[in-house]
Amino acid sequence: LGVASVAVVRSESGALTRYTLVLIASLAICAVEGSLGKILPPLAWTFCLAVQMRPDLIGLRQANALLRSGQARYLGTISYCLYLVNEPIHKVIGQVLSRFANGDGRLFTVLWIPLSIGLPFLAAMWLHTYLEAPALRWGREVAWRLSDRTAVSVHARG
Amino acid sequence: MKRLDSLDGVRGLLALYVLLGHMAPFAVLPDWIRAAASHGGAAVDIFFVLSGLVITQSLLRAGGHAAPFLVARFARIFPVFLAVFAVAIVVAPWSCGFEQMPWIGSDDAARTICVKSWPGAWLPEIAAHLTMTHGLFPNAIWPGVWLSFLGAAWSLSDEWQFYLLALLVAGQSRRLCWVLLGLAVVGTAWRLTMPVPWQFSRAFLPNKGHFLHWVWQAWPWSARKAVR
Hints:
heterodimer; A: mainly alpha; B: disordered C terminus
């Protein structure tokens, strides 16, 4: 569905028809899994794509404003770090807090919610700034040099 | 081409939802909140769809050439993965503290999210993660390797299988697409007929057979138009 979305994003002719066919096929395959959780992602994705491509449509304006907000986009920027880093951090927080709360579920929850959200965020921001962003810059630079070299070699052969 | 800024926002909200989904099972919360936060798998599925879009764009930008594409994907995935994976290895044998959380039942989702374990074959399991091959083994051959050390990393194995597949399809004729569809059918038939120990996990790309199907449906025309 993501690959089919490329033509939609590029506004190629007939892209919507093809996307619809792929969406129907995807929904059919997901329906075989037999749960709402499996059918929801293709539909949710289609909604997000509509928000990206036709933000002027009624009802999509607010969703578009939310998704284009600085906060949501920054979240997107650090999303990979946040996705990976939360698990080991939760383990450390859980171990420390469970000793501190000593069986008191309410005290654990009051401390757990802000810490288990806040600390992964801080770690993700740090990882993004000092590791991910420099690595991406390096990757782009090397990829650009390699593309340039490949283009020159293809040109020479051609 | 339009900047996909609202899709950046989608990615951000999905990551936030996955974080909440990992947080909620440990807290004392009403059932409806825990249920609302329990569809992290669906969020990861949408991440995959986003990857399909972003990776195809990345491959098209690289003109279908493998080296620049792979360098860009390596720079995106590995530095952060290596740093977090190192931390995950250090904390792997640590307890999650469940013995002091009486509100967490024996079959609670929290116990599948946080696991105290140190695999016997720890060195090969680390090697499998470093080569992103940890999603390629059924339980009968290498049980649980796809989730060891860092559970969230299962999807990275899928990602790399998808990168290689996208490269193969980009460089070959349309006939290969039929081969891929055949693989998806074989993968589905395998899932329906083989006993549980021989089933592959969700970190094995053919188990996301719809991905292959989408590639088959979408890739030939999008690649031809863009590379021309």
